[in-house]
Amino acid sequence: MNVESLAERLGRRTTRRGREHYYPDASDADWNDWRWQFRHRVTTLEELARFLPIPAAEWAARSQVLSDFRMGITPYYLSLIDADDPNDPLLRQVVPLAEENLYRAVGDEDPLGEEKFSPVPGITHRYPDRVLMVLSNNCAIYCRYCTRKRTMYDGASADVEIDRMVDYIARTPSVRDVVVSGGDPLNFATAKLDSILSKLRAIPHLEIIRIGTRVPVALPQRIDDELCEMLARHHPLWINVHYNHPNELTPDAARACDKLSRAGVPLNNQAVLLKGVNDDVATIKALCHGLMKMRVRPYYLYQCDPVRGAEHFRTPIAKGIEIIEGLRGHTSGLAIPTYVIDAPGGGGKIPVQPDYLLHYDREKGRALLRNYQGKLYEYLEPRAANASPNDVLVPAAPPAASGPVALAGSNKKRVEAASAGAPSSNGNGHAAGATGNGTPAGNGQASGNGSSASNGRNGAAPVVGKSKWVHRGSTRAERAARTKKRDK
Ligand code: SF4
Fold it and tell me: How much is the pTM?
């Protein structure tokens, strides 16, 4: 590309997005009025075509998916999309694409089996002490990968009766926590939401109210003083927001989150891992860092559910593991979400993470751990109170299982490779090392096989750090000398 065309392209990029590009005639009063934003959502292909190019060849396919699952894009959210980028990460989340039609028949209507666990319409009661309460089928934007899109098909009604839901919670004393979700509860008028929250607050055994919302992402104008004052009357109340991409972290979004935080509402983010949107370490890291600056805790990174019509968004599990691997040790723990897979059919959230515990021998009280650089460390569990005060390894407690805990899959491969002194992949490009004597847990002595303590990517790494049960009579100097020797 020559300099001129590059400049042209850059110039275009800076102008073909933003409020000035899409809504040059909107007044400040309108733009900042959440009702105006809501009323002016883009809901048809014809309207969308006024703002974003839609290839003629894709019109029929896109119409087809719209007949399944509605579209809604607030002017604000639209203004964050680059009109010249068909792969814009925000566009992909809300605009019906031909890919969606390709996979129209793939996936489940109710991938999490929520209907199965529904004692009354609108309630999902899967875990003993908490319930999900779905208030409406109305959202500020409709996310093309939404797990609950079955309730939002055009023509579907929100088959919910709020008093019956409240009544169910009131007569179920085990429920101490309710997640009020959507459709988006913050789309309700403040007085109506206040009345629902008051009914919930009147239930003595209900301790926590949580609200799940994408309003601070798609309609931050909605977070006004009146709403925040009302929410503050219902503490302890938490809000889970849903930012997926750093481009969503705008000054308006930051202002909305700040208002909620000042109202005493702790904010946690639940992102969804989406192919072509945020499926790389750099994007998720930028998202998490941006959230932290807005005082929003990155809470979950969800594997995209296999919901019908969302196959093009799904990534392999290895991608999620790779992203967590790229965060752990490379940023503060507070900025690292828990990567979870919601078990199909209703098994609940299952956390998945890279293998850090490579070997665990419960009988001998030894573990082999890997740090974020791929270096191996031996960790010894506390020895039994009646153990000899020598440097002799004894089990800390009677073994609960016979022999070492069996480690499955990649952990097992990693340990076997460690024993053989060969590099081993855990499926995401990271390798484990070997101890000098070929046994993962070693013999209680520092060991090395001559290979460098690698970062775990290129080959075998010796155990570089080892716990040791120290003789009671050790002096401080002896301990310091041992530590020095170990750390060399
Ligand atoms: S805002 Fe939430 S409930 Fe609404 S469409 Fe998006 S993911 Fe689904």
Answer: 0.81
